[in-house]
Each structure stands twice: as structure tokens, then as C-alpha cells.
Amino acid sequence: MTRPLLAALVALALASAFGAAAEAAETAVFSGGCFWCVESDFDHVPGVIATTSGYTGGHVANPTYAQVSAGGTGHRESVKVTYDPSRVSYEQLLTAFWHSVDPTDAGGQFCDRGHQYETAVFVNGPEQRRIAEASKAAAEKQLGRRIVTPILGAGPFYAAEGYHQDYYKKNPLKYRYYRWSCGRNAQVEKVWGAHAYEGVPGH
């Protein structure tokens, strides 16, 4: 077999494998306050392929960060999680979500207040809704307090501006300072105790 032919066959096999993985991938959408932090937490979950910061749940098409952060668009800062269901289940993603936010806070998250920072789980269809409702009930029982996070039908998801994507990687010092000063980790640990960040290894 000639070297060019071998290289072509290897490229074809790799393309086929990546194509199959892309076809098998599924998505889930979560709102948990600042999308920089939600994106960072989910990127630590094995089986997550990609995360995208954005906006969803509102009534304004193609909103900007300025519009959403000012309030009035109905959108929440959100993260679309693309994952490999053969490596991580939707139920596991939900476990990671509940334990990395304060689901008892109806007015926002940590230092960020307002509807745009409220928690929510946006479900794609009845199966995700069934799993999400069961997961919420289990988390509520474990917590021993009412969880106010709504489970809502998914709608259009608008990716945020480029500088928001992977913010924690591009601006590590600013990101870490923001997360600490906003009190995110401290409040999650206060709410969840030993169960804080369950399902989020090395967050």
C-alpha cells in the first residue's frame, strides 16, 4: 500500500469516527448565574465535549450581553452543554448542576441579582423533562429544602459574544478573582456542605 493511500485511508477513518461521535452527541442547557462559572464547572465533567455560553428563555432575538445584563429581555445567562451520552448521562449532568449552584435562591446567584442570573433547567422534550423532574426531587430530598429552580421547555439559544466563550481560560486571574469575590464557592459549600460540587471533579 502506498504511503499517500495509507494516509488517505487513515484520514477517512478519523473523519468517520469524528462524524459518528458528532452524530451521537446530545445537548443540555442550564442557567446557573454567571455563565463563565457554569461553563468552567461543566468543562470539568468527563464526557462533556463542549460548552457554549449564551442566552435563552427570553423574547428578544439575537440579544447582546448589554441588553441581557441590563434586564428586560427575559433571557437568562445560560450554557449549552454538548456531551457524549456513552460517557456521561443527562442525569449525571443534572447532579453536577444542582451541586454547583444555590438552587434555593429565587433572585439570582451569589452577588449577581436579577432574572438574568436566576437558575433554570431547559429541557429538550419529554424524556429530559422526566429525568430533570426526578433529579430535582432527589436533590431536594438530599438538601432537605425546597429547590426553586424551574424546569422549562427549551427555546432558541443565542451564543454570547466571543470574548465570553472560555473566559476562564482566556482571563484566569480576572476569572478567579470574580468567582472568589462574588462568593460562589463559599455559598455552594454553605448550601451543600459535603455534597458541594458533587459530580464536578476538580472544579
3D structure, described in words:
- It is a single chain.
- The protein has 203 residues and is of the alpha+beta class.
- The protein has one domain: Peptide methionine sulphoxide reductase MsrA (Peptide Methionine Sulfoxide Reductase, Chain A).
- The chain is built from 8 helices and 8 strands.
- The chain has helices spanning 3-24, 35-43, 65-70, 90-98, 125-143, 167-170, 172-181, 184-192; strands at residues 26-31, 48-56, 76-83, 108-109, 112-113, 120-123, 151-153, 157-159.
- The chain has a 6-stranded mixed β-sheet with strand order 7-6-1-3-2-8. Strands 4-5 form a two-stranded antiparallel ribbon.
- Helix 5 (125-143) links the parallel strand 6 (120-123) and strand 7 (151-153).
- The longest helix is centred in the N-terminal third of the chain and has 22 residues, at 3-24.
- The mean pLDDT is 92.
Structural class: alpha+beta
- Tally of distinct domains: 1
How would the global form be characterised? Answer: globular
What is the β-strand count? Answer: 8
Q: Runs with pLDDT <50, length 5+?
A: none
**Element string (H = helix, E = strand):** HEHEHEHEEEHEEHHH
